[in-house]
Amino acid sequence: MLSKTDGLFRKMRHWGVSCTAGVMMALPVKTMAQVKMSPAKIDALKTELVKEIDSQQKFTQEMVDMVFSFGELGFQEVETSKYLTDILKKNGFTIEQGIAGIPTAWTAKWGSGKPLIAVGSDIDCIPKASQKPGVAYHDPIIEGAPGHGEGHNSGQPLNITAVLALKKIMEREKIPGTIMLWPGVAEEQLGTKAYYVRDGFFKNVDACIFTHVANNLSVSYGDGGNNGMVSVQFNFEGQASHAGAAPWRGKSALDAVELMNIGWNFHREHMETTQRSHYVIKDGGDQPNVVPSKASVWYYFRERTYPKITQMFKDGIRIAEGAAQMTETKMTYEVLGSAWPGHFNQAIAETMYENIKRVGLPKWSEDDQILAKAAQKEMQNPEGGALETNGLATTLSQLSKPSATPNTGGGGSDDIADISWNLPTVVLRYPANIPGLPGHHWANAIAMATPIAHKGVTAGAKVEAMTLLDLLVKPEVLRNAWEYFNNVQTKDVKYKALISDTDKPAIHLNEKIMSEYRPEMKKYYYDPTKYTTYLEQLGIKYPTVREAAGEGK
């Protein structure tokens, strides 16, 4: 049970009171005075939202296709951010660029007063995931280039479609409240959301809806079952020398990297099954006949709780220090990203699920299903695993609730979790991709600028717009959301950032890759003034699948 002091602190933070270094300072905020409407009025407005979003399908499709064509990696989402903020600026939003010291990060606000609702989604893509949309086998637009092999091109178009539809109703009905859109920059590196929180951009926000691409319409609450994570690069510095003539004069930084990796791999034997850790060598030297004076290795340390994550981080530092001692090199490290394990809000999730049931899944065409089944067949599971060839989902997901059995299998991470531990948050998953694909892979780009993605984004926008309306005109939803946040979610677990006060976003990441590929990628940016869809611009017949003989059809 919360102490009186803890409960007061939670309420003060919700009301706009900050507590820093033990000194409490009241900040000016507007009293929340929500409009309360009758169920019949709300129902009529939701019907209007659906019609408005349906009427904007061409606008939605253009946004989805445009961001897909940019294909920008984390921290380098320059074209994407400019395109999206230009749309919002033209629609009356106030833009703040470069938040938290991140050039491609921003907020876009519209409205006045409380409640303040944040609406976010990721915008970065995956290395080496370039793929022609609508083609059910590997066929890159540019060989080796990055691409949207997860589907982050679709979330912000969904948000913008939903919010602009809602904005019309808020203006006409004089509904008070403020909407703040924001991007998940460099989510694939878990690189930014903890900095947004640390630097106060969610301090007075009352609730957050986040959207993420999936293969069904769904939402969940409670412990999401994922791991939290710290992303760390270890840098070693030694002494160069001629590797053939005078190797004894060298101190190999690469030896230190290899010894650290050996030490960590032996350490795995004594770690719990929930841990997930992996690394890539970012710098292994220049050429074999020069003892490497510099080398670096990049680690992800994942676990299920804050104490276990921080312990892994400490173990990594200890092993790196040992490798440096053995090789007489110097070691430094830098945090490149972090994420908490996720926990999402019950009251908002239950409200959203009622809207999911009202919207339902899109009506897939025969061509949509042909593409999906062909892609599933192309990416069949290895070693006799169950082969998913059932096409796109036709049965709606159930509301996902916390499991009675804690997850012990480990898994992925998402830094939306840091926001979820600071205010009531849910993730709306929408059906813009194909079930049964590997994830973080070119295959996951197959659907992302096709009618599958366009329909899934439209369905998701309807759910989000309805849920935002509920948050604005049903005061009990936010009241129950904060009750759950204060007295269930954070009753025993308190958020502590995995980044320090002096850590800085790793905005240099992916600069080299994008500088190499961007000039060629620009030739393929979508031009909606000339082409109805990106498929048309690329000259792709939808769907394109393999024939039995193995040739494209």
TrEMBL record:
Transmembrane segments: none
Domain of life (superkingdom): Bacteria
Ranges in a coiled coil: none
UniProt xrefs under InterPro entries: Amidohydrolase, Bact_exopeptidase_dim_dom, Peptidase_M20/M20A_hydrolases, Peptidase_M20_dimer
Domain spans labelled Peptidase M20 dimerisation: 225-303
Record's protein name: Aminobenzoyl-glutamate utilization protein B
